[in-house]
Design a protein that fits this description.
The chain is built from 34 helices and two strands. It is mainly α and about 600 residues long.
Length: about 600
């Protein structure tokens, strides 16, 4: 279609149309380009008709390439222009900014300045915004001085951008100085200044300015409400919200997210029911609020309600949150249903949904499905690789995890700290102690990743499981941070496997110091004493455990039945279907015994 249009212009109209009209036709074609190949087709005809250096067409060509984020090609075109005017320079600035290449904006601006090309009022906002994005406060101040000399001091748009730049750079005093010196302050300037104080955590200064603002639109109200939410002052948030005129759905959503982030689920639910109108962000706030507070059953209930009551369709954020809840609860059937829903609604290729699907399948025990999702993803980010590497390691497929890590490096994806947690776990499951040590060293020296407590915990687990308990203790003593409960509990578990009573006592002592009210630690050491036949020590620990005044929490299991997730506890007498459950258990025990199974209770001590 585009080639036909271009052919009609070049072959039929060119000999007859006036020069100016032909320019306008080419400009109109460039403005309608949506893809890079269309731009190249139009450009070919521009060159054929001798317009490649046209002062009107060339800037538009550069502008279109910039808007399509083809900045390398736009720069080639730009460098071929002998004397680019300010319109062309501004197109390059906007293109780099749209591509988030903010440093290139700043470098190109100073190149323009060195060539004595006068800027206009459209130049400075983009350049100043770019300085703020990369915290280039020194360069920003130089731009500020330059615009002052160029006579743009009174421009309200430039002044607002200066406030934003200084606020982003932490120079809130300079930002307020610009604000106070502005001749004309519109609602955007007031909003930018107040937002600057909020970003700096200075609500004491932000609130009086908010009260003084001559005009307060819904954006300014929402920013002020968000500031108090960040501060955790939900009483003041609600007071402001009730005073807010012309509240829109985003105002309600802001308050919803505030209650969710501050853990007030009851207020979140009440507000949701009060809402006169709900959009996708409202439902996501409710579902995400439940997830943020660990209420995964409620996540699934809210999702089902959304599907049945709302005309709003779930988006990628909704499905990702629901899939994470399915992973936590083991709700495989619902997770599979969400997978089908994503495929039928065009979200199959979404990287966030794909990552959540992989995580769900891996945690629900269907690692092959996770692999299939990964292989079907056209776009993969770092989280995609990390999710599958971790999933493979969790399923004991260490060889596959390590091979995937090699593939990851071959495609140029740089690993991060989470990647190496998966790799170290894979080495642990395979007993590859020396490989694990080598990967740990590579993480530090080759990838410049500072070890966190999770990495140290993996290394201690790797050494302890392999029976190298003394080496594990030596690693713990040299850790750059204090070992936590997980590390000492892992050591205690390894001591049980390898029957190292002395080291187990050391681990228990550290655990008692870190969490003195957890009786599970006493039970673990009691079992170790029992295996060693040290029954006096078992009795002593039982007394010590009883003296804490706390009981060990019973084990809890989750199972998906009839499109619902049911939970039950060890020795549960309160479950409404306990007779049926214990009947099935007795039947299973009979079947096991008929095949010669004999349970081993050696050294097992019941918590009391």
């Amino acid at each position: 279609m585009y080639l036909l249009k271009i052919a009609n212009i070049s072959l039929k109209l060119a000999p007859n149309l006036p020069h100016r009209l032909l320019e306008e036709r080419f400009i109109a074609l460039l403005q309608s380009c949506k893809r890079s190949n269309q731009v190249h087709q139009v450009q070919a005809q521009i060159i054929t008709n001798g317009f490649q250096y046209n002062q009107y067409i060339t800037p538009k060509l550069v502008s279109v390439c910039s808007s399509l984020k083809r900045m390398a090609y736009a720069r080639q075109l730009f460098d071929q222009i002998l004397d680019p005017n300010i319109v062309v320079w501004n197109s390059m600035f906007r293109g780099y900014a749209l591509s988030e290449s903010y440093r290139e904006v700043v470098v190109l601006f100073f190149q323009m300045k060195s060539m004595d090309i006068p800027p206009n009022c459209f130049t400075f906002p983009v350049v100043l915004k770019s300085c703020g994005k990369i915290n280039a406060l020194i360069e920003g101040k130089q731009v500020h001085c330059f615009l002052f000399k160029c006579g743009f001091r009174g421009n309200p748009f430039v002044g607002t951008t200066l406030i934003d730049m200084y606020s982003a750079g932490g120079a809130i005093g300079d930002a307020y100085k610009i604000f106070s010196e502005m001749f004309e302050r519109n609602v955007v300037a007031w909003t930018t200044m107040i937002n600057g104080y909020i970003l700096a955590g200075d609500l004491v200064s932000a609130r009086p300015l908010f009260d003084l603002a001559p005009e307060r639109d819904v954006v300014l109200w929402n920013i002020m409400v968000s500031g108090y939410i960040e501060d955790g002052d939900m009483v003041e948030v609600r007071k402001l919200f009730d005073e807010m005129p012309n509240r829109d759905v985003m105002s309600w959503n802001t308050l919803l997210n505030g209650y969710a982030n501050n853990g007030n689920v009851e207020a979140l639910e009440r507000l949701f029911e009060e809402m006169p109108e709900r959009n996708i962000f409202s439902w996501n706030a409710l579902i995400g609020g439940y997830a943020h507070n660990g209420l995964f059953f409620e996540v699934l209930s809210a999702f089902k309600r959304m599907l049945s009551e709302s005309v709003v369709s779930p988006n990628d954020a909704t499905l990702s949150t629901v899939l994470s809840a399915c992973a936590r609860l083991g709700a495989l059937d619902l997770g599979k249903w969400v997978h089908v829903y994503a495929e039928s609604h065009g979200l199959e290729g979404n990287v966030y949904v794909g990552n959540a699907l992989m995580d769900m399948y891996a945690k629900c025990g269907i690692i092959e499905n996770a692999i299939a999702v990964f292989q079907g993803m056209k776009t993969k980010d770092l989280i995609s690789w990390n999710t599958l590497i971790g999933g493979l390691a969790m399923h004991g497929r260490g060889v596959d995890a390590l091979n995937l890590f090699i593939q990851m490096k071959n495609v140029g994806q740089k690993p991060d700290g989470i990647t190496f947690i998966g790799i170290l776990c894979a080495c642990t499951h395979m007993g590859l102690v020396e490989d694990g040590l080598a990967y740990f060293q590579s993480m530090v020296h080759d990838n410049s990743i500072v070890p966190q407590i999770e990495h140290c915990g993996c290394m201690v687990d790797l050494l302890a499981r392999a029976g190298r308990l003394e080496q594990a203790m030596d690693f713990v003593s040299k850790m750059p941070m204090e070992p936590d409960v997980v590390i000492w509990a892992g050591l205690l578990g390894a001591c049980r496997i390898h029957k190292n009573v002395e080291l187990a006592e050391v681990a228990l002592q550290r655990l008692i110091e870190l969490e003195p009210k957890n009786p599970a630690n006493y039970v673990m050491l009691s079992n170790i004493y029992g295996r060693a036949g040290r029954w006096e020590d078992v009795a002593r620990l039982k007394v010590a455990m009883r003296d804490t005044g706390f009981r060990k929490l019973p084990g809890c299991s989750l199972i998906e039945v009839n499109d619902a997730v049911v939970e039950f506890y060890s020795l549960d007498e309160r479950h409404p279907q306990r007779e049926e459950i214990y009947g099935v258990l007795r039947g299973l025990v009979k079947i096991l015994r008929s095949f010669g199974y004999v349970p081993d209770f050696t050294g097992v001590v019941r918590a009391t």
